[in-house]
Design a protein that fits this description.
heterotrimer, A alpha/beta (251), B alpha/beta (240), C alpha/beta (505), A: alpha/beta, Rossmann fold, 8 strands, 53% helix, globular, C: 505 residues, alpha/beta, oxidoreductase activity (chain A), Fe-S oxidoreductase (chain A)
């Protein structure tokens, strides 16, 4: 099976380790991964900040880059939700504004074929034990777009529970938002930081070494708070845990 | 243009994008929800009503029809009731065993007068098991809405199983919208302090619900009970 | 908690003089006592609501039916308003129409004056809060007594409501005791000697204080949770019995109801009388629900002899004209979205500058009042778009969708309806730099080569990357560290190693 990796602009620029982990993991599972180098950004920040019309060229670009693949996999719940849930809505709005079917038609194929990483593993590949080894105590934060947008449910936890050596501890208040929220983090920085601080304290209360999530944007916010609060925990993307093996352990 | 025409005009302009739709209302809404939750026998439904009434701090009693007058007498006596409000159509036997002074429900009574009455005894229109609710509709055995509001102690008699329905949808089917309706689920309560429930604010602070089975024959049994009424044991008050 | 900021009623004309949400929230976030009170209250009710909803196996179907009933009604609102008017009139009531707050206040004031009374008792009503009725009555020499416990607390403290269901949610029991002790005497019967902060004692104090007012009241004022078009029935859902007092003891009853509160049929109540209590106070059923149709008649002689229904627009038809935003009019004011909102929990209700706080307020206020003021333009951004509000909404209002839609209206402007007139809004002030940045980002991001050049530049100069950012970025680095920049972006690694095929790492 050949799939396109939609890494997201944030991961590409700031978290290449996550990208390498996805490639390693999927390759190990027999998937042929391609990274279309023309990819840039899905336009989520534009769209959710109110610049839908600026997001449209980015969405069209996404459609052109990824239109030819049978599956598109992304290690980001929020960018995945953008493509799957909000691209169709952008198409509808364009239609309602009398701009015809073109945008909806360009986005429909990619919306239908985009999968968040854990969803792809469990639903498409049908695996929960990916052969990983990660001897650490981990607590998992389900990010909002993954949880309520894409409905990832128990998938990430099932994957983590099958990892050898990994002790998964429950995060109190797990389903509460971490406070990142894209531009919310800077537009309402005080509330955002207060939400994140509560999340970090909850995570620290578990005694875990690692706070895991399936979205680096949320982890960037939480990690930035963790170092300020000197918790001694570190944020790790789920792909890096699932890619880790006894032979090639992740840091 | 008056405001009626202005508002209706605004509504019509606001809906200019909505395509014309003649679907009759009965078919416009998908009512895939349940008429009642779960299968229960009549007896189990009454049991559920009792549980849910008690869960919201109503005091539940059960008796056979011929024991009703003595039970009511006991409840009033235990409370120390000296006067009791009586709806015009209340079965006379129900109060045949109490010595409390009867105060008729009259249009000219002022709220202050009602406030001096200790208790009220009524029937009900229907009771809802799933929610622990009794519904009053102002029928002659229930009286005006205010008589079950101002006194601090309400004794409500529910004939089971006839007057009990399982659910809110089934209750609405039985009720007449033209009548003034009061749905009561437990004594008055508030969640206004730290979103935690506290019983006992403006409505009756004690709600006693009597679930009565069977039919009394001409009330003879009730009268026999008069002499066995318990002594008053002081003004016990719940929820206050 | 500061109570000095101006109260923001809905009268549409004057732009509210309230700080924008981020500034207003900053103060609340740092108020440890307020944070504790809100956290305790919202977490208590969250767990209870979840349990109350889990009890009914058909919740999803009830929610969907509620959505459809409300959507259908809104799509035929003119028809149902005329029908409810006819039914109420036939049952002996009088129907008035108010296009805005000022007109509604004028109608109610005149009706009270006509009775010759100088005081009224009020059932808790969001609608009369919205129009600032108490202030209007006071200006006419009429004293309005709030009788809901939380509204009483707010009124006695000269405070503002901060929650739809529990307007005094920002006050803990100790504060409530202090308010009762110091203020009750000013309004009537003083608080009992030695009043403690036990909730049961506080409720008792309210009972004693208000009882004399109920028993002598000649005029009652209410809102309504629902009005049934086919029967003309009004429904008030409450807990304490203050509603029953105001709806049955006075001779005259005036109900001010938003036009979106109509439902077509009697049967529709079977949905909302199940979903509202469980969403709101997390009960199977609230203690008291009153339903009445028109006035008393000589046969029943039960309740007010005169009944007036004031149908209020006040921006609702403007919201109705917005094809995305109109879903906000489905709201049944349960407040589940407030209780579950992480932003509300930390910012508190006052920061929203409206009687409608929380997620629903963030989409309702900018639609009812427009987005011209600083506070209204900032409300659509008062959310991390986490979606918890949508998940709990019993009428399935997609609040995040409307928030994003209103953000668009703020930054892009465009067509909207204000006070019944179609207008073209200009983009709000203060977004010029952001707009330029978004445009520049879009330009760069539609050109992969430009993105790559930027990434490489950042990677090469990463030793010089600052710990704190200038400009808007400071809002990030004030509380959070930045992630370290990697030595190379992923795409360079991919090209260098052909996706890892050339080297193991």
């Amino acid at each position: 099976m050949r799939v396109a990796l939609f890494l997201t602009c944030v991961n590409d620029t700031l978290y290449p380790d996550t990208g390498r982990a996805v490639v390693k993991l999927l390759t190990r599972l027999g998937v042929e991964v391609d990274f279309p180098t023309a990819q840039t950004c899905c336009g989520q920040a534009h769209y959710t900040t109110g610049y839908r019309h600026e997001a449209e060229p980015l969405a069209r670009h996404f459609g052109e880059v990824f239109g030819g693949y049978e599956a598109i996999v992304t290690p980001s719940g929020s960018c995945g939700a953008m493509v799957r849930e909000l691209y169709p809505r952008m198409g509808e709005r364009a239609r309602a504004e009398g701009r015809g079917e073109a945008l909806a038609a360009a986005l429909a194929p990619v919306a239908a074929r985009t999968y968040e990483l854990t969803e792809f593993l469990v639903d498409v590949l049908g695996v929960t034990d990916v052969g990983a080894c990660y001897p650490h105590t981990v607590t998992y934060h389900p990010t909002c777009h993954g949880l309520r947008g894409l409905g990832l449910g128990e998938r990430p936890r099932r994957l983590l529970r099958a990892v050898r050596g990994l002790e998964l501890v429950e995060l109190p208040g797990a389903e509460e938002c971490c406070g990142f929220g894209g531009t919310f983090a800077v537009k309402n920085a005080d509330v955002s930081a207060a939400m994140g601080t509560d999340k970090v304290r909850n995570a620290a209360s578990t005694g875990a070494e690692v706070l895991c999530a399936a979205d680096n944007s949320c982890l960037m916010h939480l990690g930035g708070l963790m170092t300020r609060l000197r918790t001694g925990m570190r944020p790790v993307h789920i792909a890096e845990i699932l890619a880790s093996t006894e032979e090639e352990p992740a840091a | 243009m008056n405001s009626r025409e202005r508002i209706l005009g605004r509504v019509r302009r606001a809906l200019a994008d909505v395509p014309h739709d003649d679907t009759p209302y009965e078919r416009a809404v998908d009512r895939g929800y349940l008429r009642a939750h779960g299968e229960r026998s009549a007896e189990e439904t009454v049991e559920l009503l009792a549980e849910n009434l008690a869960d919201y701090r109503a005091v539940v009693h059960r008796c056979a029809a011929d024991g009703l007058p003595s039970l009511i007498a006991r409840l009033l006596a235990r409370r120390g009731t000296r006067s009791v409000l009586v709806p015009p159509g209340l079965d006379a036997d129900w109060l045949s065993a109490t010595g409390a002074a009867r105060v008729p429900d009259r249009a000219e009574s002022t709220p202050h007068e009602l406030d001096r009455v200790d208790s009220v005894v009524t029937g009900c229109a229907v009771a809802i098991a799933e929610t622990g609710t009794i519904v009053l509709d102002g029928s002659p055995d229930q009286g005006r809405r205010r008589i079950t509001l101002v006194p601090d102690h309400h004794v409500c008699v529910v004939r089971v199983p006839d007057q009990v329905v399982a659910s809110v949808p089934l209750a609405l089917e039985r009720l007449d919208p033209a009548r003034p309706l009061t749905w009561i689920s437990g004594p008055s309560a508030t969640s206004d302090i730290e979103l935690d429930r506290v019983e006992g604010v403006h409505g009756p602070r004690t709600l006693e619900v009597v679930l009565v089975t069977g039919r009394a024959d001409a009330g003879a049994a009730g009268r026999k009970d008069t002499g066995t009424a318990e002594r008053p044991d002081g003004g016990r008050r719940a929820g206050g | 908690m500061s109570t000095t900021t101006t109260f923001v009623g809905m009268p549409a004309s004057a732009p509210p003089a309230h700080p924008a949400f981020p500034q207003a929230a900053r103060e609340a976030v740092r108020d440890a006592r307020l944070r504790g009170t809100l956290r305790h209250a919202t977490h208590t009710i969250r767990a209870k609501r979840a349990a109350a909803v889990a009890e009914v196996s058909d919740w999803a179907a009830l929610r969907e039916a509620g959505r459809q009933i409300k959507d259908h009604t809104l799509r035929h609102l003119d028809r149902y308003l005329v029908q409810v008017e006819q039914a109420v009139t036939a049952a002996g009531g009088t129907v008035h129409w108010a296009a805005d707050a000022a007109e509604a206040n004028r109608i109610v004031t005149d009706l009270v004056k006509a009775t010759g009374e100088s005081e009224v008792v009020k059932v808790k009503s969001m609608t009369t809060q919205e129009i600032g009725l108490n202030e209007a009555l006071e200006a006419a020499g009429i004293r309005a007594y709030e009788t809901d416990l939380a509204e009483l607390i707010v009124q006695l403290a000269h405070d503002r409501p901060s929650h739809i269901l529990v307007p005094a949610i920002h006050r803990n029991r100790g504060e409530i005791r202090d308010i009762f002790r110091s203020e009750m005497g000013e309004w009537g019967r003083p608080a009992p000697e030695g009043l403690t902060d036990e909730p049961a004692e506080l409720a008792e104090a309210a009972r004693l204080h208000l009882r004399e007012k109920f028993l002598r009241a000649r005029v009652g004022i209410s809102g309504a949770n629902f009005m049934v078009a086919e029967t003309g029935t009004l429904v008030v859902v409450e807990s304490e019995g203050n509603g029953r007092m105001c709806l049955t003891l006075p001779e005259t009853l005036i109900s001010v109801v938003g036009i979106e509160k109509v439902v077509p049929t009697w049967r529709d109540l079977e949905v909302f009388l199940q979903t509202l209590p469980r969403s709101s106070t997390a009960e199977r059923m609230n203690p008291y629900t009153s339903l009445w149709t028109g006035t008393t008649n000589s046969a029943t002689a039960d309740g007010p002899r005169e009944f007036h229904l004031v149908l209020l627009d006040n921006g609702r038809t403007d919201a109705l004209a917005d094809t995305v935003g109109r879903q906000a009019l489905r709201c049944i004011r349960c407040s589940a979205c407030l209780n579950v909102c992480p932003v509300y929990e930390r910012a508190g209700g006052h920061a929203y500058g409206s009687v409608y706080p929380g997620p629903i307020g963030a989409i309702l206020s900018p639609q009812l009042r427009g987005t011209a003021s600083g506070i209204d333009a900032s409300l659509p951004y008062a959310s991390s778009l986490c979606g918890a509000c949508y998940e709990v909404c019993p009428v399935a209002i997609d609040i995040p969708e409307v928030l994003v839609h209103l953000r668009e209206r703020v930054v892009q402007g465009g067509e909207a309806v204000r006070q019944g007139n179609r207008v073209v809004l200009r983009p709000a002030r203060g977004h010029a730099a952001e707009r330029a940045a978004m445009r520049a980002a879009r330009w760069a991001l539609t050109r992969p080569g430009v993105l790559r050049a930027g990434q490489r530049l950042a990677a090469r100069s990463r030793r010089f990357a600052p710990r704190t950012l200038p400009g808007p970025g400071r809002a990030w680095t004030d509380s959070r560290d930045l992630p370290p920049l990697p030595a190379e972006p992923f795409r360079d690694w991919w090209q260098r190693t052909r996706g890892g095929k050339d080297t193991a790492r």
